[in-house]
Amino acid sequence: MAHVLPDLPYGYDALEPFISKQIMELHHKKHHQTYVNSLNAAEQAYAKASTPKERIALQSALKFNGGGHINHSLFWKNLAPASSEGKGNGGVLRDGALKEAIVKTWGSVDKFIAEFNATTAAIQGSGWGWLGYHPTLKILEITTTANQDPLLTHVPIIGVDIWEHAFYLQYLNVKADYLKAIWNVINWDEAEKRFAEA
Amino acid sequence: MSAVLTAARSAVRAARPSARAIPAASLSLAARSVHTLPKLDYAYDALEPHISGQIMELHHSKHHQAYVNGLNAAEQSYAKAPSPKEQIKLQSALKFNGGGHINHSLFWKNLAPQAQGGGELAAGPLKDALVADFGSIDAFKKKMNSVTAAIQGSGWGWLGYNPDTKKLEIVTTPNQDPLLTHVPILGIDIWEHAFYLQYHNVKADYLTAIWNVINFKEAERRFVEAAKSA
């Protein structure tokens, strides 16, 4: 069963000026596509592997490319054209269960965003910042994963890619500016949907 | 040396503050081990067209500078840490920023403009060892590139001297982990900030290009010293 690159729910330029068309195009067509291709190749190899040792040897390729495919698929969906630009629903957190839970946990949405950004910016290397729902503690938490590790300990509500390819062409080394800007295009409706399901 | 020359030198030295003089204000414990950003031995645009001036400037004046600042801050905190637990908490900041400073300092020196010999591997002990351990120079470069490109995330590709086997080996370190198991002979930064502005996602092209500006003279110097002390 071959994995395929999901289409974006919006045009490559739809998240401007917050995330550039150039970045979106490279990120989707090149980076995510590569994870899809490599995941398919790794799975083919895994199907042919005849010993535990061979299978274990393939684990890192499956985790890296599988994680890359999972993470980016979630990412495209939790982004949306900015409402502030009149382009869509991005950046708008409506009153509801998710907003209540965020305010309850962090005091305010702004405080949540500040803590999320600080935690994500502090990742030492490549990785992802996540708002996740802990399934047994039943609370929202900010957490991170390294490289392309998928989020396993929590239900992913919002993911933010902090690999340099996600922002460097536009924001250079100033990742704090990228992290500020991205909240204009976060798809809170999708986040709410994931939270309701979790 | 002539008396005139000596006098002239003394005069010049007296006229400008010696680089070694330490201002009284910074003689405190905290300032004793302040790390500083090393200067490059070449201009930002000197490695063009293989590595752009824009990348070199950001990489040196922003990224490496941030590791230096982060390291100094972490060391200051460490000096004040009152317990093993507090010290252990600071380890990741020390490793990340310390490693970043170590790695980039090595990196700038193992790059050189072609005008300064970048890309040239002269006949000598390093060339001999590379051929002995990898079969050919091309085979070595190919392996270095494929191993470095295969890093899953951020990190460094290294040509390292294994002090136990006395062989040259290609190894990698993740993120800003410094190379500890081998003596670093050559390091290649494969963090996206090292190439993305110029090469985008095509890191293979960056890895092909960088060999034009690898400072093999510096690599040989490191190799000869490593082989001596082993």
TrEMBL record, chain A:
Catalysis: reaction(s): 2 superoxide + 2 H(+) = H2O2 + O2
Residues covered by the Manganese/iron superoxide dismutase N-terminal domain: 3-80
Binding site for Mn(2+): H27, H72, D161, H165
Primary enzyme class: oxidoreductase
Any one GO molecular function term: manganese ion binding
GO cellular component annotations of the record: mitochondrion
Location of the Manganese/iron superoxide dismutase C-terminal domain: 95-194
PROSITE patterns: SOD_MN (PS00088)
Record-annotated membrane-spanning stretches: none
Pfam families: Sod_Fe_C (PF02777), Sod_Fe_N (PF00081)
EC number(s) stated in the UniProt entry for this protein: 1.15.1.1
Alphabetized UniProt keyword annotations: Antioxidant, Manganese, Metal-binding, Oxidoreductase
Cofactors required: Mn(2+)
Physiological role: Destroys radicals which are normally produced within the cells and which are toxic to biological systems.
Family stated for the protein in its record: Belongs to the iron/manganese superoxide dismutase family.
The protein's name: Superoxide dismutase
Originating species: Lentinus tigrinus ALCF2SS1-6
Automatic annotation (TrEMBL), chain B:
Binding locations of Mn(2+): H59, H104, D189, H193
Catalytic activity annotation: 2 superoxide + 2 H(+) = H2O2 + O2
Transmembrane stretches, start-end: none
Keyword match Oxidoreductase: yes
Record PANTHER family: SUPEROXIDE DISMUTASE 2, SUPEROXIDE DISMUTASE [MN], MITOCHONDRIAL
Needed cofactors: Mn(2+)
Tagged with keyword Manganese: yes
GO CC entries: mitochondrion
Protein family membership: Belongs to the iron/manganese superoxide dismutase family.
Keyword vocabulary terms for this entry: Antioxidant, Manganese, Metal-binding, Oxidoreductase
Top-level enzyme category: oxidoreductase
Region forming the signal peptide: none
Example GO molecular function: superoxide dismutase activity
Record function comment: Destroys radicals which are normally produced within the cells and which are toxic to biological systems.
Domain Manganese/iron superoxide dismutase N-terminal: 35-112
Protein name: Superoxide dismutase
InterPro entries hit by this protein: Fe/Mn_Superoxide_Dismutase, Mn/Fe_SOD, Mn/Fe_SOD_BS, Mn/Fe_SOD_C, Mn/Fe_SOD_N, Mn/Fe_SOD_N_sf, SOD_C_sf
